Amino acid sequence: xxxxxxxxxxxxxxxxxxxxxxxxxxxxxxxxxxxxxxxxxxxxxxxxxxxxxxxxxxxxxxxxxxxxxxxxxxxxxxxxxxxxxxxxxxxxxxxxxxxxxxxxxxxxxxxxxxxxxxxxxxxxxxxxxxxxxxxxxxxxxxxxxxxxxxxxxxxxxxxxxxxxxxxxxxxxxxxxxxxxxxxxxxxxxxxxxxxxxxxxxxxxxx
Length: 206
Prior knowledge:
Layout: E1 8-13, E2 18-19, H1 29-39, E3 45-48, E4 53-56, H2 58-69, E5 79-80, E6 86-94, H3 99-115, H4 120-133, H5 135-140, H6 145-152, H7 167-171, H8 173-179, E7 193-194, E8 201-202
Parallel strand pairs: 2-4, 3-6
Antiparallel strand pairs: 1-6, 3-4, 5-6, 7-8
């Protein structure tokens, strides 16, 4: 007798994914589109078997619908049906007990990812690697100047793997972060820029 998986992946037409009525979570669709375009479709939506509604993945659903409307190429991770429609992988097998249970799960799946926060030192090290290794990927994270300033208040730049900046770099660190990446007048990326994680000057991609 074969084992029946309690959770499984099924590819369904994008147009068949029905959002939960009144879903309260907001989404940054353009950032989701950028992520899917760059990295492929990584995070499956989840469908409630009792209602047939999406309980996780509303934003990704909206992003895919917008991408298809714009005529974007098929993202990595999706399939195409015989009529050219996009087929999306979704997690199946879970059923809510009632509408209140479903609403709780919709909120909880989002709240749990927010609650733990970040380890500031590990995050700063990741950002330093990205800023010095691939500035375009770093930019795609869309960290605000305020967020970077808050992170720098919690991490000593001298302890990061990139090494200890000299005194002049440390003195100018706050100004560099407040200004973000140094840009020339025509908005082109400058030859030298300041890593927002550690304060080091570097040429993007070096």
